[in-house]
């Protein structure tokens, strides 16, 4: 078996540096930027399954639902305006992540996080007090603008702050807070749905103010990354900051590499146009395909619509919200596994294991739904064991995602881009992710209505393709300093044809492709 993505360990530099309390606290605070994204993902599905909310804003869906017992279950939620409510946010996020690229590059990662928090705060307020559908949509657009800024800047911030040996674990703090945000939202929905008078949805939507305040305040107290300070010409402060972050005095080697990377990036006037250069082909491909594939795992079908989906397959309202809490908890727990393993077992192992696990579960869930609902969507009586089996395999599927594509979908792109294209390429990553999140959110309910159980087979097919892609085209990036990443392409069986000997030479002095760096794997 060819070691298609392997990497000759021990090549490149080893910068001194510890996992200092300073870097830990900084990364934990920054990672909380993921809360706003997660809260939002988790809240919308629950809210759209609350009857009083539907009666107020989407009466036609409420009406359809009342008749669902008689009709086709697969189609009870199929409504364009309802999906627009969920998905409008992601279009806004797509646009703002492109603007955020400029803010992040010119003014630092912190300012983008601050914008993210403030916009999200405004959106949460409008949603909590919404009186008409337009207020709901406006609120969600503001939330989306906030998420675009946060998702563009937080992963970069984390990957730059972290000592490279712990970069995977610290970066996954972002995904962990996404999953915690989703879970908190699921739990709140469960309780708020029970509030007498049916106004619990206002608390669910308005509650987004809490994570918004956390990232807003966080961004004010966080330090800038040394990389970003150098990028903006503040060399002395950057050196001091690097010493503080790494907890050692001797940071010269890393500092010089950062300066060299920054000098190289200054020569680049048009980071966007630059991305089209041949030597950036691997980066561009990965910046597009990783987020595309992440969404095509089908995860957001579960995250957005778990309550709706469980409702569709026959669970009562309460049981549906409760099942979302169960999948949400599995999501958090399995993310912790990847924090533990990502810098030990590597990215490729997690991707491939997680992919296999998801594939098997999708096939089983499709078979279960097909067996009971067939194509007419009329299940008759559903025995309890059936519900348990479906929820169980959905949980195993979620776990597979949560230790592979979930965190790695954010980690891998944020660590592979050289500084000169980092901000622009990260925006591509975020906008592709948001675009496909939008597409899935927008079409899922009608896909469910038309493709029925085949929907799960559709996603399983993509999981197979993405696993093959990882196997052949993704090099291992574990344990490689971020400014040294160039060598992984030179050592790769396929990407080496795009990257020349003199491309991505850190500090001008490292001769990659010679001696200890020569291994082609
Ligand atoms: C994805 C989201 C998804 C979440 C689930 C994230 O990495 O980008 O789309 O809902 O993981 O935990």
Automatic annotation (TrEMBL):
Gene3D superfamilies linked: MFS general substrate transporter like domains (1.20.1250.20)
Ranges of residues in domain Major facilitator superfamily (MFS) profile: 26-478
Lineage per the UniProt record: Eukaryota, Viridiplantae, Streptophyta, Embryophyta, Tracheophyta
Domain of life: Eukaryota
Family: Belongs to the major facilitator superfamily. Sugar transporter (TC 2.A.1.1) family.
Database matches in SUPFAM superfamilies: MFS general substrate transporter
A Pfam family recorded for this sequence: Sugar_tr
Membrane-spanning ranges: 19-39, 82-104, 111-130, 136-158, 170-193, 199-222, 284-308, 320-342, 349-373, 385-406, 427-447, 453-474
Main location: membrane
Keyword list, A-Z: Membrane, Sugar transport, Symport, Transmembrane, Transmembrane helix, Transport
Location(s), subcellular: Membrane
Protein topology in the membrane: Multi-pass membrane protein
This protein's name: Major facilitator superfamily (MFS) profile domain-containing protein
InterPro entries documented for this protein: MFS_dom (IPR020846), MFS_STP/MST-like_plant (IPR044778), MFS_sugar_transport-like (IPR005828), MFS_trans_sf (IPR036259), STP/PLT_plant (IPR045262), Sugar/inositol_transpt (IPR003663), Sugar_transporter_CS (IPR005829)
């Amino acid at each position: 078996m060819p070691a298609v993505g392997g990497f000759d360990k021990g090549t490149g530099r080893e910068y001194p540096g510890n996992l200092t309390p300073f870097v830990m606290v900084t990364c934990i605070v920054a990672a909380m930027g993921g809360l706003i994204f997660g809260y939002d993902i988790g809240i919308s599905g629950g809210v759209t399954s609350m009857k009083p909310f539907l009666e107020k804003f989407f009466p036609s869906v409420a009406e359809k639902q009342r008749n669902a017992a008689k009709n086709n279950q697969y189609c009870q939620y199929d409504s364009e305006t309802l999906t627009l409510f969920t998905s409008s946010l992601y279009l806004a996020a797509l646009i703002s992540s492109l603007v955020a690229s400029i803010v992040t590059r010119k003014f630092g990662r912190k300012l983008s996080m601050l914008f993210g928090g403030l916009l999200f705060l405004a959106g949460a307020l409008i949603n909590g007090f919404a009186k008409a559908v337009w207020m709901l949509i406006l609120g969600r657009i503001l939330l989306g603008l906030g998420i675009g800024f946060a998702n563009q800047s937080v992963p970069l911030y984390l990957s730059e702050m972290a000592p490279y040996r712990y970069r995977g674990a610290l970066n996954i703090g972002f995904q962990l807070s996404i999953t915690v945000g989703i879970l908190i939202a699921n739990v709140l929905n469960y309780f708020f749905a029970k509030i007498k008078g049916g106004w619990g949805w206002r608390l669910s939507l308005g509650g987004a103010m809490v994570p918004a305040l956390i990232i807003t305040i966080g961004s004010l107290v966080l330090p800038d990354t040394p990389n970003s300070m150098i990028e903006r010409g503040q060399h002395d402060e950057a050196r001091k900051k690097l010493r503080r972050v790494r907890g050692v005095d001797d940071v010269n080697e890393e500092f010089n590499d950062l300066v060299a990377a920054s000098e190289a990036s200054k020569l680049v006037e048009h980071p966007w146009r630059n991305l089209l250069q041949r030597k950036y082909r691997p980066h561009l491909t990965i910046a597009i395909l990783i987020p595309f594939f992440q969404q095509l795992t089908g995860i957001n079908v579960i995250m957005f619509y778990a309550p709706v989906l469980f409702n569709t397959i026959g669970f009562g309202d309460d049981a549906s919200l409760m099942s979302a809490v169960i999948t949400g908890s599995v999501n958090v727990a399995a993310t912790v596994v990847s924090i533990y393993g990502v810098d030990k077992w590597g990215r490729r192992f997690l991707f491939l294991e997680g992919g296999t696990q998801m594939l098997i579960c999708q096939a089983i869930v499709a078979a279960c739904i097909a067996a009971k609902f067939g194509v007419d969507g009329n299940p008759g009586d559903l025995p309890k064991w059936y519900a348990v089996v479906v929820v169980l395999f959905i949980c195993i599927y979620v776990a597979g995602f949560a230790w592979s594509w979930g965190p790695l979908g954010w980690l891998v792109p944020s660590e592979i881009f050289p500084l000169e294209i980092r901000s622009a390429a990260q925006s591509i990553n975020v906008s592709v992710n948001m675009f496909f999140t939008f597409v899935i959110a927008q079409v899922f309910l009608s896909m469910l209505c038309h493709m029925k159980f085949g929907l799960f087979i559709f996603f399983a097919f993509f999981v197979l393709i993405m696993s093959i892609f990882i196997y052949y085209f993704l090099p291992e990036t574990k344990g490689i300093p971020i400014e040294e990443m160039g060598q992984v392409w030179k050592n790769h069986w396929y990407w080496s044809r795009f990257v020349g000997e003199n491309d991505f030479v850190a500090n001008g002095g490292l001769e990659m492709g010679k001696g200890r760096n020569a291994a082609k794997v």
